[in-house]
Specification:
The structure is a homodimer of 678-residue chains.
Chain A: H1 2-40, H2 44-68, H3 77-85, H4 95-110, H5 118-134, E1 136-137, E2 142-143, H6 153-172, H7 175-186, H8 192-216, H9 244-275, H10 279-303, E3 307-309, E4 327-329, H11 330-335, H12 339-348, H13 356-373, H14 383-404, H15 413-429, H16 433-443, H17 449-466, H18 470-478, H19 496-499, E5 507-508, E6 510-512, H20 513-522, E7 527-532, E8 544-550, H21 551-559, H22 578-583, E9 603-605, E10 616-618, H23 623-633, E11 637-641, E12 647-652, H24 653-657, E13 659-664, E14 667-672
Parallel strand pairs in A: 5-7, 10-11
Antiparallel strand pairs in A: 1-2, 3-4, 6-9, 7-8, 11-12, 13-14
Helix pairs in contact in A: 1-2, 1-4, 1-5, 1-6, 1-8, 2-4, 2-10, 3-18, 4-5, 5-6, 6-7, 6-8, 7-8, 7-16, 9-13, 9-15, 9-17, 9-18, 10-13, 12-14, 13-14, 14-15, 15-17, 16-17, 20-21
Chain lengths: 678, 678
């Protein structure tokens, strides 16, 4: 966990610093061009430069994702969520994915897209955890011969949840928030000792990040330096009892706006799955979005005349545009920085820094831009654009409050911007407790805890009335058999016999190599019951259940030719768990294992290898009972037996995930889905 | 959850205000007496008054606990922990317990014992939750006919975990900390929707508390008023990179000191269980402790000459004693307030407010006093005394640092007092993440989060090397079959057949009333397998498993005489789940149900009532597998079947809890314990 924390933080630092330096250079250049061209009336050149400087990095990032590792697209949070839920998502925790993700997100943020770097950082943490805990890298063909004990699905999953937490800790400087994120979004079985290991990793991660970044910012050793807080320090922001209704209303707005966002993004993603399938078209789409982003920015700067006196606003690259001398364009200052810095501006700019209309127009464009951007084939996070959209309309509410209650000390547009940002993000992702803590830690302010909680809870409630959170929507579109937190309602009268797959492919305790090879070739199942053959094999009887054997175990047996005819006994062959640990996690496929015709008649004794007492269930168990067993113990398959302990069927995650509740405008309906296999 | 939050907070407010007013009156009176007697040299009278004012409330509180509801003794956290773990602790969530607890803790704090009110508040929250969620009170014989759906063990347990969280939220003003406490100490199955319900309740609880207390303090509506923070507001307390080793050392000290505390308290508790059994002796012991507390206080005030100029220290009742005019006794100011206020003083008194020797002596006495006090037959919490002890030695460390690094701005004794307090409490209770968050929320300071985490983790590590946390120690002494987070190590070669109880008492699907009545009278089991009788009942065969029936269900069947001979069919008798919900949770005992001799020959068809598909396990399952099933699904009993689905045994929590790991100085040994049935 120490290593995971440190390396995750270092990766986050690299991304952070690369983005900081890249954006800085880009905006400095653009500012120079704009300043020069305002006088010479050649604004089309800075515009073209802007488009170019957006498109080039974005094309690099997009090409990396599309041609090298498509699974690195998006924020990675849905994929990590699936992984923690117990679903194997191919290639999700490989080093290649990590590299593409880290480089890709740097490119997309420098490319000026409406994206953040936080989601990819969380995914990076997960990859780091999966890699380190195994003590070997298959990509680099290196085995450090350490941590062999952890080469097992459950152990690896525990580490991945720790890595995700370390990622959150590094992304937001929020160690407690990281632990809660990992639990709220991922874990199913709360385990005290695991939790404090995760907590330890997150702490190390935050600590490393603070040490590195405080040195980078020229204040080595000052771990409490406020510049390390992502969203700046909120000072003395008190609130009044009577403001709570306002926060609740803002929560509702956030829920509505988030639900709309999710709905539009859902439609867009369906469209993308159907029509944007060619690789070059995917890259082309990102180019269009990148160019549009620059166009919208330039258009707003040109046509919105929002001049403010210099010196008040702490922006780094103020541009004058058509403003009088000593003034700068407030709109330009929002566009000429990274989205994260814009969030900070909206939170901390003094009252009166922005005009109502420009903020409103900014909100409208940015809402649709970020909706269009999420789901593109680039590595991109959703947190920052949602926060920025929310901060914009939150600031509008703040301005309204200033009009309504002039001269009141507690009316601070920055506070409303924070609440609005929380509401919007909560409406989109539907997290409550972890998001509250993350925002508290990222702003360094505890006083606003209660308002944030109220807002986030309301946003979740309102949003949940319309649709699911964006991550769940994307998981559903990925066709992954993820299991919810609770068994689907209205399912109490569905029994195991209806859910299970049957007839089941079973093996006898001593089985011929030929049958094993054939079954592995023809079937895709991952687990097979081992049975005593029925005494009277007339097709109407079942075999008595003896144990469960996994596909991966059978593959290893075939690979090492652990047959009865070639080995005098098992111990002589030196058959140990080492075979399995060495092969983990990338077992060969059945096609890669050669079985000669002679060997097909040999037999294998499955009894020493199989799991002799796996979890089983009776055929008359109800669906909720099966569900709790899968969810509580993280199972992947369950053998269904009848009263005589004979195998009658198998239930897998997919069988359970078929039953989903269709939730539409508050009404519920249980329906059987056809899971798309992609 | 709204009601639970509000009522828990209101109870907390009552306790708070009663203690505040009571202590205030007591100390005002004592100060007056002392001031008068210093001149007249009659200090023995104020001392006697002090003893009297300690003993009287303590006797009331103690008598309530001893004679009315013994289960209300202590902090209640171990009991709540057992309850959430799935063990039924008798009378733990009754209204009588709540009343005794609330009145008792008020008495013991006013009585000047080394106790806090926080633990009892958490227990109160749990009782409130259990009561409200059922919509009826058996004590008051009122049934509001609401929430009938919740009259079931699992639902009730979920609410109790919410109530405990609301209790923490009310005790420390820490809603997030409350949720984490409830998870770290209680829950086993993390459930997203449950969590955010708990979070909601905690939030409501904090909100209500803040509204009431801000009104009480004369600042209505000011929810962010710093006086609402239990431990006062820490301002601008930054720390330096190089201080972290100091924090780690302090964590070690806390771990050592906590381990010593737990060891002494363990020995003391064993002594109490053996020798202090008579009720009047228990009350007498509390009287002795109360008198000793006053004596120690008076002795320290008399013999320690620690005078400080008035006006610097914000104590409410400064006493002059033998100090010069315009000065006050610093030791007196620590003793003449509640322990909670003393903690606040040690955190916030400016540097130089206390003398090294007086703090050291105070620490020594208070450590042993609080160790002696915990486990007395009074309602008492452990948090505040531990924090106070730790704050004392933490301040000593702070003074040492001032000597070592004179003139450094970051050396603040108050900060070291906080770290010391965290280390000591962490060393005693061994919580990490929840305690970090609670302390962050109770001090309103986020900056010190990282130092607190480092300290608490170190304290836990060091402490765990020596013994278990105090709550786990007490649970073990209570003889409750609680299950840990992980299956005991070294248990992979123990199989179900070794763990299970056998032979099992089973019922046939259609059973005679006589046999049911006899079995219920003679056996104490709570669940019975229902079987088809073996075809050849020669004693060597087992019955085929058909389902599981609970003692409570059988009792209801006998109570309502749902026999085959008196009912034409089940539906005619109007047999519904209502029978069970109405009787829940206090089912009659078998002695309260009359079965006539004629009825003994009637039969009962158990099939419509029994659970036809409970979780079962094969006889060759290993102990860790059984353990995960119990822990993950919260089971109380599990039927063990053989290969032919015949019942060969039953495993209960007690069977599993027998296997504990004896941990002694870092070495581990698996041993079978004999659980004490009390």
């Amino acid at each position: 966990m120490i290593f995971i924390g440190i390396i995750t933080a270092l990766i986050a630092c690299c991304i952070d610093i690369a983005i900081e330096e890249g954006s800085s250079a880009k905006f400095a250049f653009l500012k120079e061009q704009v300043d020069k061209c305002v006088a010479e009336e050649c604004l089309v050149y800075p515009f073209l430069y802007w488009v170019l400087l957006n498109v080039v990095p974005v094309v690099i990032g997009s090409a990396l994702v599309v041609y090298i590792e498509p699974v690195a697209a998006g924020s990675g949070i849905p994929q990590v969520k699936c992984y923690l839920n117990g679903v194997k998502v191919p290639r999700i925790v490989r080093i290649k994915t990590l590299i593409v993700k880290a480089v890709g997100v740097t490119c997309s943020v420098i490319g000026g897209l409406a994206v953040g770097k936080e989601g990819p950082m969380i995914h990076s943490g997960a990859v780091v955890a999966a890699g380190i805990s195994q003590g070997k890298s298959t990509t680099f063909r290196r085995d450090f011969n350490i941590f062999k004990y952890f080469r097992e699905d459950h152990e690896k999953r525990d580490f991945v949840s720790g890595g995700a937490a370390a990622g959150v800790a590094a992304a937001f400087g929020a160690p407690v928030g990281g632990v809660l994120f990992s639990l709220e979004e991922g874990a199913s079985f709360w385990n005290q000792s695991l939790t404090w290991r995760i907590f330890f990793g997150s702490m190390i991660s935050t600590f490393t990040l603070n040490v590195v970044l405080s040195t980078y910012h020229g204040r080595p050793g000052e771990l409490t330096f406020a510049g390390l807080l992502n969203f700046g320090k909120f000072d003395n922001t008190s609130y009044d009892f009577r403001e709570l209704p306002v926060f609740i209303v803002m929560g509702c707005l956030g829920g509505l706006s988030g639900a709309l966002f999710n709905y539009l993004n859902f439609k867009l993603t369906v469209f993308r799955i159907r029509y944007i399938t060619k690789k070059y078209v995917k890259v082309l789409e990102t180019v269009v979005v990148a160019a549009c982003t620059a166009t919208v920015g330039m258009g707003m700067i040109l046509y919105l005349n929002d001049c403010k006196p210099l010196g008040e606003d702490p922006t780094k690259y103020p541009i004058q545009m058509y403003c009088a001398d000593g003034q700068y364009s407030a709109v330009g200052s929002i566009w000429f920085q990274t989205p994260e810095a814009s969030v900070r501006s909206l939170f901390h700019d003094p009252p009166g820094s922005h005009k109502l209309t420009s903020i409103l127009i900014f909100f409208t464009f940015y809402f649709f831009l970020s909706c269009w951007t999420y789901g593109l084939s680039v590595s991109s996070g959703l947190f920052i654009p949602s926060l920025l959209t929310g901060a914009a309309w939150g600031r509008v509410v703040g301005m309204g409050m200033e009009e309504l209650f002039p001269g009141q000390t507690w009316v601070d547009p920055g506070k409303y911007a924070l609440i609005g940002a929380a509401a919007q993000l909560g409406g989109v992702v539907r997290m409550t407790i972890s998001l509250t803590v993350i925002l508290i830690e990222a702003t360094g302010n505890l006083t606003l805890g209660l308002p944030l909680m109220v807002t986030l809870l309301t946003a979740k409630w309102v949003g949940d009335y319309f649709n699911e959170g964006i991550y769940d929507t994307h998981i559903q579109l990925m066709g992954v058999p993820i299991l919810g937190w609770e068994p689907p309602p209205l399912s109490h009268n569905i029994y195991a016999t209806e859910v299970m797959s049957c007839p089941v492919v079973t093996f006898n305790s001593v089985e011929t190599v030929g049958k094993i090879a054939d079954v592995l070739t023809n079937e895709t199942y991952n687990g097979f019951p081992v049975v005593d053959p029925p005494l009277c094999p007339d097709g109407r009887n079942f075999g008595t259940f003896r144990g469960l054997i996994l596909r991966s175990q059978l593959i290893v047996v075939l690979q090492h030719k652990l047959y009865n005819e070639t080995a005098e006994s098992w111990s002589h062959k030196g058959f140990t768990i080492k075979y399995f640990r060495d092969a983990y996690p990338r077992y060969p496929t059945i096609q890669q294992v050669h079985v000669s015709d002679e060997e097909r008649h040999f037999t294998v004794d499955l009894r020493p290898i199989m799991n002799p007492a796996p979890y089983t269930c009776l055929h008359n168990a109800s669906l909720p009972r099966l569900f709790r067993l899968f969810r509580g113990l993280g199972l992947r398959h369950l053998v269904i037996v009848n009263d005589n302990n004979e195998v009658v069927g198998m239930v897998t995650r997919k069988d359970l995930a078929r039953y989903r509740v269709e939730k539409h405008m508050g009404r519920m309906r249980l329906e059987e889905l056809t899971i798309l296999d992609r």
